[in-house]
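Below is a filled-in request sheet from our internal design queue. Each sheet records the structural input a requester submitted and the sequence that came back. We keep these sheets so that new team members can see what a complete request looks like end to end.

REQUESTER: design group, bay 2
PRIORITY: normal
MODE: inverse folding
CHAIN LENGTH: 161
BACKBONE (tokenized):
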């Protein structure tokens, strides 16, 4: 989320007020996705929601990293936020349904890993950016986003009947 504004400012050379839209579109779209997420999970099924969300987020980041337009880049960051918005709730629910596992402990483990990644991810991106540049560092996130649809089929998720 934070790196979107830095990317706009440093790579596309926009002013700080324009660069702030990268963060605003990402977080605003994520909020919208969270509000709609339960309804979408009911309509599509959790696997499809996760898979389609990963595809949308991947396309959004691809647009952001390949565009020279600040507004198209900003829109791409918004697509990333909307695409991954449903992932955490779906994965938290899935953790409670792992056969043979205590639901409370499974949820605790997933939440701990998720929050650890939330804290370490920006630092890892920054470290990689110092070595390769921010476009390439964010490209590594694109690789991870592409993995979401691939691994979603292996999760214990509720499916639309």
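RETURNED SEQUENCE:
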């Amino acid at each position: 989320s934070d790196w979107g504004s830095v990317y706009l400012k440093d790579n596309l050379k926009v002013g700080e007020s324009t660069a702030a839209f990268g963060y605003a579109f990402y977080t605003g779209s994520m909020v919208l996705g969270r509000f709609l997420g339960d309804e979408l999970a009911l309509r599509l099924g959790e696997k499809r929601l996760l898979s389609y969300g990963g595809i949308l987020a991947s396309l959004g980041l691809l647009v952001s990293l390949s565009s020279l337009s600040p507004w198209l880049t900003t829109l791409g960051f918004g697509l990333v936020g909307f695409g991954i918005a449903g992932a955490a709730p779906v994965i938290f629910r899935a953790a409670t349904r792992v056969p043979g596992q205590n639901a409370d402990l499974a949820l605790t483990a997933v939440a701990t890993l998720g929050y650890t990644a939330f804290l370490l991810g920006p630092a890892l991106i920054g470290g990689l950016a110092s070595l390769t540049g921010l476009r390439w560092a964010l490209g590594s996130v694109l690789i991870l986003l592409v993995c979401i649809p691939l691994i979603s089929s292996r999760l214990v998720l509720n499916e639309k009947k």
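SHEET NOTES:
- The two ends are 35 Å apart (CA to CA).
- The helical segments are 2-11, 16-44, 46-66, 70-84, 87-95, 103-132, 134-152.
FILED BY: M.R.
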